[in-house]
Write a structure and sequence with these properties.
This protein is of the alpha+beta class. Helices cover 40% and strands 21% of the residues. The chain contains 27 helices and 32 strands. The strands form 8 sheets. An 8-stranded mixed beta sheet has the order 6-5-9-3-2-12-15-14, with no helix packed on it. A 5-stranded mixed beta sheet has the order 17-18-19-21-20, covered by helices on one side. It is globular, with a radius of gyration of 28 Å. The structure holds arginine and zinc ion (ZN). Zinc ion is lined by residues 299, 303, 322, 325. Belongs to the peptidase M1 family.
Length: 877
């Protein structure tokens, strides 16, 4: 049964304070909860019964104002506890439950990860700990007492500040009491208890308060937490400077756990992380991991204001905290590193995940209007498109007014559970702008298409852009309205410099932003001395599909000259994509396209431009992925042709630029100690990108170069990349490198995932057999989400040619695994199913096989709500 946004009602009861008492035990943890409850004066219902959520709980007692209720005084179902009669005045409700963390493999609620007790309550895990009003608009202050065996769990943590600790039972047990003074919804509750090591640091806030920072990790991994700590301090400083936000407790704790459904969680004062997003050293982690750690540490920290101090009224408003916080972490990374490279990587991510979501059966508005299982809505659309919306607000308002709007939002809604309307109102108010059309970005799903036609009038010296917008139909939304789309533009004169933008377009052009609001609009520029080359959607100012008439010559010109570095990259990317699509078309007609040399030449010229930093040049060398090409083609997709076209262009570039690429690979070789900073990471990225192109040749020289990088690497960035390339090859070094890596890292449960990934992504013909065999490997564990993602997730998402085998065996394998995982971890099972969302775009044979595999899930007697919802939406005719 779906839940609808329009059915929102304020809660009938409020819970002022929560006292929790945990007697931690692996198989039988006793939870005592004491709640101060009162009727909500804003409730629209009188004499409502008190209905608490609860799942998988053993109820031991219910005590109302000191009186134990008898069985007839409450009702119990599988998902709720109802107390029909409650006092009119505020009352105290005590609930005793028993739970079994050791059997909890859903990783929601209280569970154990490698012997450590930990929790995940967002979105609805708290109801697996105790009966409660498990909804984000019920805010309470928490006091938590944890008691455990001191040998098993010397570390006892919860939210807020620690009030007390001591021993009991003559030293047999010990306890700690934590208090969080900031009212919060229960999804932000957390506890951790276990035998952990830690590193600590101090932070002084801008206004002079001291904060103790601690990161808890497995024993022996302390040194690998240093980068996360460094990232945390920089995040805290940045939020003070950029948004005026200070931290608000005496301590801030981060705990790394091995079994975690997502990346990390922003629990107040006690962030819990997937350990692969905390642990990093040059030997064990790639630059990409260092970057990801920096960004996720920042993300979770930034939630303290955007998510925790101001939370969401209901789960439909999820983008209020997630879109905004992603925008904030992207801005942080842009400030800490290269702004344009950050933008390129964010746009790549958006186009790789959000665009396909938005154009397939799982398309939904950034603020959905209904859901069956909320965990299915932690999506690229809510997160990444949500961040793009905030970015567009900043673009439309300008930096200063945007900051004022944020200030007003923090001031007005601190301590509240807010909505998107309230958020937008702050920006409308400070800027005096009407954002009502803009608000459509939250409710209308699908990626708008913007078509741009140009015409130059030599006599009149005018140049016009005619812009048309359309948004394709999406599930449940047949009618689409025109959106307010901010398009940042420039016009390049024949010398490659920007022309001044003079027009009589009025409000439709402000500075270099065109405000496209109509289905079709023409902007005419005056005083244009010669036909310019248009640079549209600079900085990717709106999440749209853009179609502009640009010849290959124009693209090469933009790549060489555009003052907007993002669009230089975009030109290269468009050029490469066009070339590959032409190659796919030729292959599907049994021909071979002769294109590619134009792009190779343009790329070669850009690579010698020493004004471009290496990270940027690395981005130019990274061709659109096979999945990107599949998305671009959009229908009748044949992954065999895409694989071959991709290889064809890669090899053509490698052959033409062989010496140049080899020189890049040679000269950028590291000297001196490893540093994870952006400049050094950029050099390694360029080296790796050059090697990847070269390795496609499969020649002895290329393979030796790759093997040499693997065996002589002084850091994981070079080792892992070379390992991936060797694993994809048919060389004798393939086996030696994989075995070598295994010998070196098999005891490290984080690093060994790299070994699974390399094999899962290999396009060799036996990939499926290899992957299947690895599911039975002693280092594989189907209950550990990181292992499942490394092996099965990567096979389905990052190995398109082998996953989409013409015999359909890839689909069958995935469905088999999904059904197995769904029995204990529905969230991970549903997530994997996302890999099938573009099945309808496949060519007819594969489409039929994919549908057959999906149908198997619908025939399964007892799928989880998570998987059930996704399969319904994916198959919906
Ligand atoms: N709020 C977390 C973050 O974005 C994500 C946790 C989501 N967890 C879940 N089970 N849906 O940082
Ligand atoms: Zn988040």
């Amino acid at each position: 049964r779906p839940i609808y946004l329009r059915d929102y009602r304020p809660p009938n009861f409020l819970i002022k304070s929560v006292n929790l008492d945990f007697k931690l035990d692996a198989a039988a943890t006793k939870v005592r909860s004491r709640l101060k409850v009162r009727h909500n004066p804003k409730s629209q219902v009188h004499n409502a019964p008190l209905i608490l959520d609860g799942e998988n709980l053993k109820l031991d007692a219910v005590i109302l104002d000191g009186n134990t209720l008898t069985r007839s005084q409450y009702r119990l179902t599988k998902t709720s506890l109802t107390i029909p009669e409650t006092p009119i005045k505020p009352f105290t409700l005590e609930i005793h439950t028993t739970i079994d963390p050791s059997q909890n493999k859903s990783l929601q609620g209280l569970y154990r990860s490698r012997g450590v007790f930990c929790t995940q309550c967002e979105a609805q895990g708290f109801r697996r700990i105790t009966y409660f009003l498990d909804r984000p608009d019920v805010l309470s202050t928490y006091t938590v007492r944890l008691e455990a065996d001191p040998k098993e769990a010397p570390v006892l943590l919860s939210n807020g500040n620690r009030l007390e600790r001591g021993t009991s039972d003559r030293g047999e047990r010990h306890y700690a009491v934590w208090h969080d003074p900031h009212p919060k919804p229960c999804y932000l509750f957390a506890l951790v208890a276990g035998d952990l090591s830690s590193i600590a640091a101090d932070f002084k806030t801008a206004s002079g308060s001291d904060v103790g920072l601690t990161i808890y990790v497995e024993h022996g991994k302390e040194e690998r937490a240093a980068w996360a700590m460094d990232s945390l301090k920089r995040s805290m400083r940045w939020d003070e400077k950029r948004f005026g936000r200070e931290y608000d407790l005496e301590v801030f704790n981060i705990v790394a756990v091995s079994d975690f459904n997502m990346g990390a969680m922003e629990n107040k004062g006690l962030n819990i992380f997937n350990d692969r997003l905390v642990l990093a050293s040059p030997e064990t982690a790639t630059d990409t991991t260092f970057e990801a750690i920096e960004s996720v540490v920042a993300h979770e920290y930034f939630h303290n204001w955007t998510g925790n101090r101001i939370t969401c009224r209901d789960w439909f408003q999820l983008c209020l905290k997630e879109g905004l916080t992603v925008y904030r972490d992207q801005e942080f990374s842009a400030d800490e590193r290269s702004r344009v490279v950050q933008r390129i990587s964010d746009v790549r991510q958006l186009k790789a995940h959000q665009f396909p979501e938005d154009s397939g059966p799982l398309a939904h508005p950034v603020r959905p209007e209904s859901y069956i299982e909320i965990n299915n809505f932690y999506t690229a659309t809510v997160y990444e498109k949500g961040a793009e919306i905030v970015r567009m607000i900043a673009t439309i308002l300008g930096a200063e007014a945007f900051r004022s709007g944020m200030d007003l939002y923090f001031e007005r809604h601190d301590g509240e559970a807010a909505t998107i309307e309230q958020f937008l109102e702050c920006f409308a108010e400070v800027s005096g702008r009407d954002l009502s059309q803009f608000a459509l970005w939250y409710s209308q799903s699908g990626t708008p298409h913007v078509e741009c036609r140009t015409s130059y009038d030599k006599r009149a010296r005018t140049y016009s852009l005619t812009l048309k917008q359309t948004t394709p139909q999406t599930p449940g939304q047949q009618q689409k309205n025109p959106m307010h789309i901010p398009l940042r533009i420039g016009l390049l004169g024949p010398d490659g410099h920007d022309l001044p933008l003079t027009t009589d377009a009025g409000d439709a052009l402000q500075d270099d932003i065109i405000h496209l609001r109509q289905p079709s609009q023409t902007i005419t520029f005056t005083d244009v001395p010669a036909r310019p080359i248009p640079s549209v959607l600079r900085e990717f100012s709106a999440p749209v599909h853009l179609e502009v008439e640009l010849s290959e010559k124009d693209l090469a010109f933009l790549l060489a000259n555009d003052s907007d570095a993002f669009n230089r990259w975009q030109a290269a990317n468009t050029y490469a994509m066009r070339t590959m699509v032409a190659m796919v078309e030729a292959l599907s007609r049994g021909k071979r396209s002769s294109r590619g040399t134009g792009f190779a030449k343009a790329l070669s010229a850009a690579l010698v431009d020493d004004n471009l930093d290496w990270a940027f040049r690395a981005e130019l060398m990274r061709l659109p992925s096979q999945s990107d090409v599949a998305t671009e083609i959009g229908q009748n997709v044949d992954h065999t042709f895409i694989y071959r076209a991709h290889r064809q262009l890669t090899r053509l570039i490698a052959r033409r630029l062989e010496d140049q690429l080899a020189a890049i690979h040679d000269t950028l070789k590291e000297s001196g100690p490893f540093s994870p900073d952006a400049a050094n990471a950029g050099k390694r990225a360029a080296r790796n990108a050059a090697l990847q192109l070269l390795a496609s040749l499969g020649s002895k020289t290329a393979i030796n170069r790759t093997a040499d990088q693997y065996f002589n690497a002084s850091n994981m960035t070079e080792a892992a990349h070379a390992l991936n390339l060797l694993a994809a090859s048919n060389s004798p070094q393939r086996r030696t490198a994989l075995d070598h890596f295994y010998q070196r890292w098999h005891e490290d449960h984080v690093v060994i995932d790299t070994w699974f990934v390399a094999q899962a992504q290999s396009p060799r013909n036996n990939a499926l057999d290899v992957v299947r065999a690895l599911t039975r490997h002693e280092r594989f564990d189907i209950t550990a989400p990181n292992k499942v993602r490394a092996l099965i997730g990567n096979f389905a998402l990052m190995n398109p040619v082998q996953f989409n085998r013409p015999d359909g065996k890839g689909y069958e394998f995935l469905v088999e695994q999904i059904l197995a995982i769904d029995r204990f971890n529905p969230q991970i099972a549903a997530r994997l199913l996302n890999a099938m969302r573009s099945w309808r775009a496949l060519e007819p044979k594969r489409r039929k096989l994919a549908r057959n595999a999906l149908t198997k899930i619908t025939k399964h007697p007892d799928p989880s709500r998570d998987v059930h919802e996704i399969v319904l939406r994916i198959l919906d005719e």
